Amino acid sequence: MRAVINISLPQQMVNIIDESVKSGKFASKSEFFRHLIREWHDNKLLRELEQSRLEFASGKAKVLKSLKSLR
């Protein structure tokens, strides 16, 4: 199921989106925004992973011996 979200953008941003769609990089404006959200989500996961790596390297992380240790 899909939902419709309406947003307001400055004309300069609208022009960037329109150019991206016209150039064929995206099939539609919706695809442009889906791409942005996927990128944002991927970057969020990468930041969380990097934070976990830093915690592990600094000795703050807990090493699990099994999945039961998660409880």
Automatic annotation (TrEMBL):
Q: In its UniProt entry, what is this protein called?
A: Ribbon-helix-helix protein CopG domain-containing protein
Task: Enumerate the Gene Ontology biological process terms.
Answer: regulation of DNA-templated transcription
Task: Enumerate the Gene3D superfamilies for this protein.
Answer: Met repressor-like
The protein's organism comes out as Candidatus Woesebacteria bacterium RIFCSPHIGHO2_02_FULL_39_13
- What is the superkingdom listed in this entry's lineage? Bacteria
The Ribbon-helix-helix protein CopG domain extends over 4-43
Fetch the InterPro entries from UniProt: Arc_rbn_hlx_hlx, CopG, Ribbon_hlx_hlx
